[in-house]
Amino acid sequence: MCGRYVSPEQAEIERAWAIGRRNPAPFQRRYNTTPDALVPVLRGEEDGTLALDAARWGFVPNWWKDDQPPRNTINARVETAAEKPMWRSAFQRARCVLPAVGWYEWAQPSGASTGGKRPPKQPWFFAARDGALLAFAGLWSLRHDADGEATLTVAILTRPAEGPSAEIHARMPVVLPAELQAQWLDSGVRDARALAATVAEQSTTEVAQRPVRRLVNNPRNEGPELIEPLSESGDPAA
User: Fold this and answer.
1) Phi and psi based region of residue 235 (left: phi greater than 0; alpha: psi -120 to 50; beta: remaining)
2) Could you tell me which residue, 49 or 156, shows the higher pLDDT?
3) N or C: which end of the chain has fewer CB within 10 A?
4) What is the pTM of this model?
5) Which CATH number characterizes residue 143's domain?
């Protein structure tokens, strides 16, 4: 997963999940969600309800002492997250779901280079075939800085790509089917290795895919035109 996805607005999330506690600032749909952005996350409460919170995309473990956050922590590999020190504690007791409309990957087009330069990579958009929201498996951490201010941070769990996405990129998010989400969010489930094997085996891999405009390459660009199919945009180079 390359680190860019479409996050839904709050009304979409509330239609898809029964929310208990809500984030005070409603979420708007973002078509170009980037690392370090505040993103919607669902966490399980002790009473079994769901809490909708805002988390910063870029995991910082609660034991981290440096002023600068760790690098390359927007994603965690499902194959190793249950055992690696960076993720181990969160995998055992701090799991979450990130609602998503879909995600982007970039593929290198085939063909000869021109003037010694390879053709620019082509962005693709992946989403549920029926248009429903996706549930990315995530890990969260609540870290307090030197001033005591708490920040909720999150990483998206990834797996080796299968199905259509494997033709574009080697990895994809762990997309949880509805029947697996309660188990993933249950903090009482502590057998991390078994849970990792379960989500890797049962996660959804069959998704719809389409090439989209290169507008998404610029993180400042926003709007529904970012996920329009090239055949409809009429401007494959933009």
Assistant:
1) beta
2) 156
3) C
4) 0.92
5) 3.90.1680.10
